[in-house]
Write a structure and sequence with these properties.
The structure is a single chain. By secondary structure, this protein is mainly alpha-helical. It has 3 domains: 17-132, Orthogonal Bundle (Fumarase C, Chain B, domain 1); 142-220 and 258-390, Fumarase C, Chain A, domain 2; 401-455, Fumarase/aspartase (C-terminal domain) (Ribonucleotide Reductase Protein R1, domain 1), CATH 1.10.40. The protein contains 17 helices and 10 strands. The protein has a two-stranded antiparallel ribbon. A two-stranded antiparallel ribbon has the order 3-4. The record marks 327 as: Important for catalytic activity. Its EC number is 4.2.1.2. This is Fumarate hydratase class II.
Length: 456
């Protein structure tokens, strides 16, 4: 163990640790969940620290040797060399100060080593140097926005693109398959199987538009606000230059938020994005539920779709196979809706000048993006692309559907057509059989008017 100090006194820290006194206090204070802040967020925060160090160096607010050591330490964090040095629990101080000081201390101790010193000697100071021009109140929300935007670019949007492509492929494959439509879970008029898959595809396209729009608000960063939005202790030009460098690192056009007071007091932009994820989750529930419903069987259900067999489905019923991927999609989607509600409630906690629920927001939005992206990839490759249409089953439903009477209403009227449908139902005959028996249509007329292909 080694002795480290902060403004409250001395703290014993493990020798191998790169964090210092404030992090150790947080470890001891917050023994809550055993879950530390997501590494996606740590890397985003390291990106902010790197940009700030470069800005301070260029503007000569930090001496060059110190700045270079800080820059190297930040790069090493981004190279995953210190992943085990960020142990602070998610459920900590609501500003995320403990995590901000965690990374400040890791950077300071590593920079001190780079300059020839030992951990704890503070040749580079976590507050005076690493945190220069910054506050937890602006760096944490800045890193939160960056994490969401970059994770969405790298995982969520590519996953949605893959699902859109998979649905479009099946839409084309199923273009010539006529099936019975269903409303209220009852037989309706015919549609193409491709119409259903085309509708799913359009849902995904629309979700992409909503998510992309929501991401624009997250490209506004709070950096430069410092403690309450006034920018106190931030050197002139520092934040603008740092944000410019963040944009270069990420190839994303970030800018400083137009109102820094709003940027730290409110989490509306994150809440709006979380709502778009919730909408996506609702869409995924609809699509996965439809596919599970249409594939139910294999012999005693609807069975219009045949899913790929992935694993045995029962520990007691031999040969049973379940729709495991749609079920996984449903569980993830319900979870994402729950996370979105948590974020909504946390966003309401922007009391006066600062939102103090940021670590919980960060954890849940990170989890939501990751699990949704992963399950969408699974859904595309393991469920949608291998789906087959059970043409024999589909044709049998079409032939026996009472909804085929619908175009007959234009010829004999709604009431008479309804009577024919009722008679077909109670006698267990097809619409065509009843019409021909009653002499309402000739065989040639019946073939033409009651042809399902003419109804789509």
């Amino acid at each position: 163990m080694r002795k480290e100090t902060d403004s409250m006194g001395e703290v014993m820290v493990p020798d191998e640790a790169y964090f210092g006194a404030q992090t150790q206090r947080a470890i001891e204070n917050f023994k809550v969940s055993g879950k530390s802040m997501p590494l996606d967020f740590i890397y985003a925060l390291a990106t902010v620290k790197l940009a700030c160090a470069l800005s301070n160096k260029e503007l000569k607010y930090i001496e060059e040797k110190k700045a270079d050591a800080i820059i190297q330490a930040c790069k090493e964090i981004l190279d995953h060399k210190f992943d085990n040095q960020f142990p602070v629990d998610v459920y900590q101080t609501g500003s995320g100060t403990s995590t901000n000081m965690n990374i400040n201390e890791v950077i300071a101790n590593r920079a001190t080593e780079i300059l020839g010193g030992k951990k704890g000697e503070k040749l580079v100071h976590p507050n005076n140097d690493v945190n220069k021009g910054q506050s937890s109140n602006d760096t944490i929300p800045t890193a939160m926005h960056i994490m969401i935007v970059e994770l969405s670019k790298k995982k969520l949007l590519p996953a949605l693109n893959g699902l859109e492509e998979a649905l479009e492929y099946k839409e084309k494959e199923f273009a010539n398959i006529i099936k019975i439509g269903r409303t209220h879970m009852q037989d309706a008029v015919p549609i193409r199987l491709s119409d259903e898959f085309g509708a799913y595809k359009t849902q995904i396209i629309n979700n992409k538009k909503r998510i992309t729009f929501a991401l624009e608000g997250l490209k506004e960063l709070a950096l430069g606000a410092t403690a309450v939005g006034t920018g106190l202790n931030a050197p002139k030009g520092f934040a603008w230059l740092a944000i410019e460098k963040i944009s270069e690192f990420t190839n994303t056009d970030y800018k400083q938020a137009p109102n820094l007071f709003e940027a730290i007091a409110s989490k509306d932009a994150v809440n709006f994005f979380a709502s778009s994820l919730s909408t996506l989750a609702s869409s995924m529930i609809k699509i996965a539920s439809d596919i599970r419903f249409l594939s139910c069987g294999p012999r005693c259900g609807i069975g219009e779709l045949i899913l790929k067999d992935l694993q045995p489905g029962s520990s007691i019923m031999p040969g049973k196979v379940n729709p495991v991927i749609p079920e996984s999609v449903l569980q993830v989607s319900y979870s994402v809706i729950g996370y979105s509600q948590i974020i909504n409630m946390c966003a309401q906690a922007g009391v006066l000048e600062l939102n103090v629920m940021m670590p919980a927001i960060i954890y849940h939005i990170n989890e939501a993006i990751n699990i949704m992206s992963n399950v969408i990839d699974d859904f595309s490759t393991k469920c949608i692309l291998p789906i087959r249409a059970n043409k024999e089953r589909i044709n049998s439903f079409i032939e026996n559907s009472l909804a085929l009477v619908t175009p007959l209403a234009l010829i004999i009227g709604y009431d008479k057509a309804a009577a024919i449908a009722h008679e077909a139902y109670i006698t267990n005959k097809t619409i065509k059989e009843v019409v021909l028996e009653k002499g309402i249509l000739s065989k040639e007329q019946a073939e033409k008017i009651l042809d399902p292909r003419k109804m789509v």
